[in-house]
Structures are given as C-alpha cells and as structure tokens.
C-alpha cells in the first residue's frame, strides 16, 4: 500500500508533467480550478488548486474532502502511483470505477485531452 509521502510525491510528479505539457495538452492543463484528491485506502485528501498548468497541493486532510472542489478525484494510493508512473491507464481505470473523477461538463471535456 502506498504511503502518504508516496502519494504526495506522485501528485508532485503529475504537476511537473502537466507543467511541461505542450499544444492541446497544455490548453487542457491551463484550468484555474480548486482540486481535491481523496486517497480512499489511507482516508486522506490532498486539496489545492490547479493553475498555470500545475497542481499546487495546499493541504493534506484526514478523511474525505471537507469542501466540494471543482475537480474531484478519488482512488487508492497504489492506483495514484500507478497512474502517474504510466502503469495504469486512466481511461480504463475510470471506466471500471477504480478511479472517480467528478467535474463540471466543460472541465471534463477539457480534461479528456489528458486521458
């Protein structure tokens, strides 16, 4: 089972990858939205902001998200690490329910470019 530190490192790695995106991927990451990532097996939530093509994690909270972020993810720590490392396909994980992504319709259309 992935640790809190490994999950945080995975989110930092994802943020770095997003920051280096170009073209259509860059436009998909250019949202300015609140974001939360609930790690279900650790029962912690990373909360922050997606802005300027990066994810800025501002808080690590115990339990599920306290406030409804504009973009919400939920998954196990192992799945987060596997997704970021390219070992788990996001679309398949989302389609099978292993990963939950909730956002407004417009945001989902923009984020689909990342999938």
Please outline the major beta sheet.
5 strands, mixed
Measured by DSSP, the beta-strand proportion falls in 25-35%
Distance between the termini: 25 Å
User: How many helices in DSSP terms?
Assistant: 5
Q: Can you give the helix content as a percent range?
A: 25-40%
Number of strands: 5
Query: Low-confidence runs (pLDDT<50, min 5 residues)?
Result: none
Structure class? alpha+beta
Report the principal-axis shape: globular
Overall mean confidence score, pLDDT = 90
The H-and-E topology, N to C, reads as HHEEEEHHEH
As a whole number of angstroms, the C-alpha radius of gyration is 13 Å
Q: Within the largest sheet, what's the order of strands?
A: 3-2-1-4-5
Report on the architecture of this protein.
α1 (4-19) runs parallel beside α3 (77-84). The model has no long low-confidence stretch (mean pLDDT 90). 39% of the residues lie in helices and 29% in strands. The protein is globular, with a radius of gyration of 13 Å. The chain has a 5-stranded mixed beta sheet. The protein is an alpha+beta fold. It contains 5 helices and 5 strands. A hairpin with a 2-residue loop joins β2 and β3.
Compose a concise summary of this entry.
The chain is an alpha+beta fold and 115 residues long. It is 39% helix and 29% strand. It has a five-stranded mixed β-sheet.
Tags for this model:
115 residues; five-stranded mixed sheet; alpha+beta; 39% helix
Secondary structure blueprint with pairings:
Elements lengths: L3 H16 L3 H7 L3 E7 L4 E8 L2 E9 L8 E5 L1 H8 L5 H7 L3 E4 L1 H7 L4
Parallel strand pairs: 1-4
Antiparallel strand pairs: 1-2, 2-3, 4-5
Helix pairs in contact: 1-3
């Amino acid at each position: 089972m992935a640790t809190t530190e490994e999950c945080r490192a995975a989110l930092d790695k994802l943020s770095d990858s997003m920051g280096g995106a170009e073209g259509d991927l860059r436009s998909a990451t250019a949202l300015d939205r609140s974001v939360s990532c609930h790690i279900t097996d650790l029962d912690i939530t990373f909360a922050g902001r997606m802005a300027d093509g990066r994810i800025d994690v501002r808080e690590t909270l115990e339990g599920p998200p306290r406030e409804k972020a504009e973009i919400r993810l939920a998954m196990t720590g192992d799945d987060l690490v596997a997704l970021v490392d390219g070992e788990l396909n996001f679309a398949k994980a989302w389609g099978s329910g292993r990963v939950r992504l909730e956002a407004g319709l417009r945001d989902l259309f923009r984020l689909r470019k990342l999938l």
